[in-house]
Design brief:
8 helices, 4 domains, globular, Immunoglobulin-like, alpha+beta, five-stranded antiparallel sheet, disordered N terminus
Length: about 575
């Protein structure tokens, strides 16, 4: 039977299509499920938020029945995220649950199952409710630090809470103000909002956490946190009022001496440190002359990635080492900043045999325990095999003009002169001949002088251009350009139902961008005298989410009231 070329190619295309479908099904079945809480330490009468995120667009609902054993389940919501960060688009789905603990102690949020996958359990600490109030007012501000005494470059978490039992208008919480030694300030996560019941009164709480890194010894004087707002009471709005917390002082101790076992240790304070590694290929079967890549990752909680010391990979004379540029990443968590430094080393075996790499040890100072500790990584073994392409080295025979040498060879040996000159000349002539053939073939090709129509850039690149223009206009204070560029971006995002105003766009995106757009609308169309923050709007445009689904609310029986009392 004769098989035509078309039938042969058709069979190949069908096989590739089926393989692609199987691969897509595999990715969908193994979507990663991540569970996270907004706060790891809560009081018994405080609500907190649990988010279940799957890193793909999936229609399967999570099974969260196991949550009701230890928690009251309040408001539930879900949204599909289309995240745009520097022009890169990724999609995910997130389910949000407002929970309140039923008892005190160390509680474990059980795994939540979505399809065939499930999240990891999450542990939270539930403390007894507060019995005293810092004041009898309907609005008050509290501040606290996790360490009143710290060390140079060690993280100090500074928490600000605003309690409101009444509705407010035009609220404004100032950024922390400090004096004394030089301090590096980082925002430890997004602003959190939850409910709290103190003395039988329901409060809406806004919480901000900052990570402080003092750069020298001495003391830090943290000024009172300042909250300004107009209070809505009995249908009337009061004038602008100011509420302040108590000031806080933090003592910063100098760097302690290194441990006796590591006299040259670099000062590295953190809450926890771990070292991991991975290899690009099997270390037990590595031919000589072929590269292998080793990745060493240092993860530290309570520190910045730029402060992680350089790791000595511990190589041998039997290896050639080629280090690459390290990768740095910082993320904010409930316990502060999590720093990651990832080093990459390319190694090439020079000689065959077993090569033992020495263990890696990194001394670090425990912030919580106030003592030196060591993070370690066990040594690795490389088995370098002889290269299969290696050419055996022939013995070199030196020329001898004496008659005895000629006689020993059995006669007169011809004089051989080893010279690479003519070999290089031959290679050059061959290369010139190939270039001549290519030039002749190129000259005989018909020139295509027809004008080419410019290609339309992809939608995501057009959106990235409009977002960049909107950020630039926000920094320049040009409200008109901000609105025009954002509306053009929104027209591409929602082609079937494009928003007609910036206020409509604000209702379709996540905070803080939604808040900044509402302030821009108020400044543009509200009464005179209002202002909008161009820097804050430009910052919120760098990372935000697109809301696609509506919130579905369901209050579980027995949950204390969680309705907000106002903003």
């Amino acid at each position: 039977m004769v098989v035509t070329r078309f039938e042969k190619h058709k069979s190949i295309f069908i096989n590739l299509f089926v393989a692609a479908l199987l691969l897509l099904a595999t990715f969908s079945a193994h979507a990663s499920v991540i569970a996270a809480v907004d706060r790891a330490n809560v009081e018994l009468n405080e609500s907190f938020t649990l988010k279940i995120t799957v890193d793909t667009a999936i229609d399967v609902e999570p099974n969260a029945d196991s949550l009701e054993e230890d928690f009251y389940v309040g408001t539930r919501s879900q949204l599909s995220n289309t995240t745009i960060v520097n022009g890169q688009i990724s999609r995910s789905r997130t389910w949000t649950y407002v929970l309140m603990a039923k008892r005190e102690g160390e509680l474990v949020i059980p795994p939540v199952r979505i399809g065939s996958e499930q999240s990891e359990p999450v542990t939270i600490r539930v403390t007894p409710p507060s019995t005293t109030l810092p004041g009898e007012a309907d609005i008050f501000v509290t501040t606290e630090v996790d360490h009143a005494t710290s060390y140079v470059q060690a993280q100090v978490l500074y928490t600000v809470k605003v309690y409101r039992a009444v509705a407010t208008r035009q609220p404004r919480l100032s950024e922390p103000s400090m004096s004394g030694v030089e301090v590096l300030i980082e925002s430890a996560g997004e602003e959190r909002t939850y409910e709290s019941i103190l003395g039988g009164k329901a409060y809406n709480v806004v919480e901000r956490i900052y990570a402080l890194f003092p750069q020298e010894s001495g003391s830090i004087s943290i000024a009172p946190a300042r909250f300004e707002a107009r209070v809505l009471r009995d249908g009337r709005i009061t004038g602008r009022k100011i509420y302040e917390s108590e000031p806080i002082d933090v003592i910063v101790n100098p760097i302690p001496p290194p441990p006796d076992d590591f006299p040259d240790a670099v000062w590295f304070p953190a809450k926890s440190v771990s070292i991991t590694e991975d290899w690009s290929r099997d270390q037990s079967d590595l031919p000589a002359g072929e590269p292998i890549t080793r990745h060493i990752t240092v993860t530290a909680l309570g520190q910045l990635s730029t402060q992680i010391p350089v790791i000595d990979p511990g190589v041998s004379d039997a290896l050639k080492l080629y280090p690459d540029k390290p990768e740095f990443r910082d993320t904010a968590e409930a316990l502060g900043m999590r720093a990651i430094r990832r080093d990459q080393y390319a190694m090439i075996g020079v000689t065959s045999g077993e090569v033992q790499l020495s263990p890696i040890e990194l001394p670090w100072w425990s912030i919580d325990d106030g003592e030196w500790r060591v993070a370690s990584l066990s040594g690795a073994m490389l088995n370098i095999l002889p290269s299969p392409t290696a050419i055996p080295v022939q013995p070199v025979v030196e020329a001898d003009d004496s008659a005895s040498a000629q006689d020993a060879a059995g006669g007169l040996a011809p004089d051989i002169i080893y010279n690479d000159f003519w070999r290089y000349v031959s290679v050059g002539l061959a290369a010139l001949w190939v270039m001549t053939l290519l030039a002749w073939w190129s000259s005989r090709r018909p020139a295509n002088n027809a004008p080419r129509e410019p290609e339309v850039p992809p939608v995501h690149k057009q959106q990235a251009r409009f977002l960049k223009a909107a950020r630039k206009a926000a920094l320049a204070g040009d409200a008109s350009a901000v609105k025009s560029n954002l509306l053009e971006w929104a027209r591409l995002q929602w082609p079937e139902q494009p928003p007609r105003s910036i206020g409509d766009v604000a209702g379709r995106v996540s905070v803080p961008l939604a808040t900044q757009l509402e302030q821009l609308c108020s400044a543009s169309y509200g009464p005179g005298g209002r202002e909008w923050d161009g820097n804050a709007l430009a910052k919120s445009l760098r990372s935000f989410s697109v809301l696609n689904d509506e919130v579905e609310e369901r209050s579980a029986e027995g949950l204390p009231p969680l309705s907000p009392v106002g903003n």
